[in-house]
């Protein structure tokens, strides 16, 4: 870890001491936004009881946050180029902290939902530009390790949310889940204002019509997933899906003509980038699906309590924390596609072993399987993120960062919706884990397809950066 903050002659990015503070600001901001996605799920029954609402209505405390966050990722990534990424990150953090205080004090579902929507806006502002900030903070020679750290925070945050939520709820009531963000957010806010790189805003207009189309496209897509996951009538989720497709078509047409598009078409002209995006989305489908499916498997079929279930998830984030940094460092030296493909293979084996888990299996039998999944995901995500960011032109780093965050969120939420749809159809929970295996197979195919391209790009990069003899 110390090598990330060493400064050598000729390094781009921030100097070592400033780099350390800036990274700490990004880590705290990312963890708060990502952990919140899965941590609140364990508190939904308590929220429904205390606010005297149905469980179906309480689910919107989680859903609204994810829908708003996902719908504005691309918008904020583009908007940051006008006002600067530092200003947007600080504003997003401030909004998230204020909304967290409001959510902790809310005593009605309606007020809580308002603050959850504001939290989602704040989270979108920080998550949309996080990876591109890593590219500005760290020198090019450490980019793989830096993006490995970023992927580690995101994946670890998603995976550790249930365990952290279970721990807090074992000693306090649900408002403390929101209050927990306040001191961490204030620290991150001060660090971000002091240490993030200052940069001028871009001169030129903002694609407002494209932004509206992006919000409608992504927002209606997530509403379709929510309706599908909760066994709503077919006309309801099909209607939202149709609206998403129409808005998506108009959005893509707009991007080809806009002077400052939210999603520059030439970003996807690089096959390495497109294949890395595909692999990332499919892998997050598998992980998002597994988190929800295992909750039902552990509690309904194996008889574990919610707190015990939270601890059974622990090997997943621990394995990511152990393997992720190693994978990021190694991706700077060897073909990242080889590492990412190996990680996907391990994730596939882990999900398949969980799908074969018997209801009377021992705790140890479950722990090694979730650990295998975590090892696979930790080995996959940092090299794959490196591929996504380095294959994009530097001037499109912010747009690539928005695509990375949106892909992750869409994949995670699609996995959750698939579990809901299968359970609504009375399918066994193990069947959903097999769907996760299919997603991993498709991700592995995409990762293997870009292997020769990534190898050639790495050889070219070494020849360009090697000193003359």
| Class computed from helices, strands and strand pairing | mainly alpha
Mean pLDDT: 83
Give me the number of helical elements. 21
CATH fold call of the largest domain: Growth Hormone, Chain: A
Proportion of residues in extended strands: under 5%
Residue runs with pLDDT of under 50 for 5 or more positions? 463-469
Shape, principal axes of CA atoms: globular
Summarize it.
This protein has 469 residues and is mainly α. The chain contains 21 helices and no strands.
Mind sketching the topology for me?
Elements: H1 16-39, H2 44-51, H3 55-58, H4 60-71, H5 73-83, H6 85-105, H7 109-127, H8 130-137, H9 143-169, H10 175-179, H11 181-195, H12 208-229, H13 234-257, H14 271-301, H15 306-312, H16 315-331, H17 336-355, H18 363-391, H19 397-424, H20 429-449, H21 451-465
Helix pairs in contact: 1-7, 1-8, 1-9, 1-11, 4-7, 4-12, 5-6, 5-19, 6-7, 6-11, 8-9, 8-19, 9-15, 9-16, 9-18, 12-13, 12-19, 14-15, 14-18, 14-19, 14-20, 16-18, 17-18, 17-20, 19-20
What do you see in this structure?
With 469 residues, the protein is mainly alpha-helical. It folds into 2 domains: 375 residues, MFS general substrate transporter like domains (Growth Hormone, Chain: A), CATH 1.20.1250.20; 52 residues. The protein has 21 helices and no strands. Helix 12 packs antiparallel against helix 13. The longest helix has 31 residues. The C terminus is likely disordered. One of its GO terms (molecular function) is transmembrane transporter activity. One of its GO terms (cellular component) is membrane. It comes from Halomonas chromatireducens.
